[in-house]
Amino acid sequence: MSEGWSAARAAHWLAEAFESGDPLAPLPEGIAPRDKAEAEEVSAAVLDALAITPCGLRVWRPGVAGPMVEARLLRNGATVSLAGLRYPVVTAAVIGVLAEPLDPDEDSPPVFARLHPALDVSATRFTAAPGDDLTLTADLARLGLVIAGKGKPAPDAPVRVSLAPKGTRARGAEVDVLAALNDAAREARRWGGLPAGALLVVAGLSAPVAASGTLHANLGTLGAAEANFA
C-alpha cells in the first residue's frame, strides 16, 4: 500500500456521500485507492463507518465485487425511484443463498439452499461515472439495489437469460449460472469467506438496459423478477 495512504480517509468521503445523498467529486490523489487491496479495504471501511454489517458479497462484473447490504435487497415487483441514482445500469442477476459456509481455506463448490432470479440496479455516488475498477470497488461495486424473485433449487443445466421491458419478447442467451456463482464463490473466499445463510449475488448476466418503465428479467427454469422504475 502507498506510504501515508489511509482507507479511513477515502471511506469518510464515500460514507458522507452515502448518508447525505449528495454527489461526490472524484477522489483526489493521495486519497483514492491505488491498487485492488486498497480499494477493497476502502469498501470495508465504508461499511464500518456507517455501522452496516454486510449480508454477503455481490459481484457486479469480473474484477469488481463488494459487500452486499441487506437494506438494498428489494422484493420482486418493487418500485425503484430514480431520484438520486446517478448513471443507473440494470442487468439480470442471480442470488445464491448459501446452505453451507464458504471457508476461505477450501475450494469445494458452494452449496446453495436456493437460488433467486433477480434484477441488479447499479449506480454511483460520483458526479461523473467512474470507469476504473479501483474506484468502482471502493464505491461498494456501484452500490447495488437487488430485486429478488422467488427462490428455487439450483438448475442442472444452463438457463436462457433475458432482460427487457415487461410485455416484450427478448431472445436472451444461455448462461451457466452455477459456473458464474462458482466464480463468485472464489471471489468471496478471497474476501475472507461467508457464513451459511449469506447471499452470493452475481450481476451482469444480461446486457445492460436503461432503467425505465417496468423491466422483466427471465432466467428460464429459475423463474423471473421484475421492477418498476419511476
Main attributes of the structure:
single chain; about 230 residues; alpha+beta; Fumarylacetoacetate hydrolase, domain 2; seven-stranded mixed beta sheet; five-stranded mixed beta sheet; 4 helices; 12 strands; about 20% helix
What does this structure look like?
By secondary structure, the protein is of the alpha+beta class. The protein has one domain (54-229): Fumarylacetoacetate hydrolase, domain 2 (Alpha-Beta Complex). It contains four helices and twelve strands. It has helices at 7-20, 36-50, 133-138, 177-190; strands at residues 56-61, 64-68, 73-75, 79-80, 86-98, 112-124, 145-148, 159-165, 173-175, 199-202, 213-218, 224-229. The protein has a seven-stranded mixed β-sheet with strand order 2-1-10-5-6-7-3. A five-stranded mixed β-sheet has the order 4-12-11-8-9, with no helix packed on it. β8 and β9 form a beta hairpin. α1 (7-20) crosses α2 (36-50). The radius of gyration is 17 Å and the shape is globular. The termini are far apart. The model has no long low-confidence stretch (mean pLDDT 92).
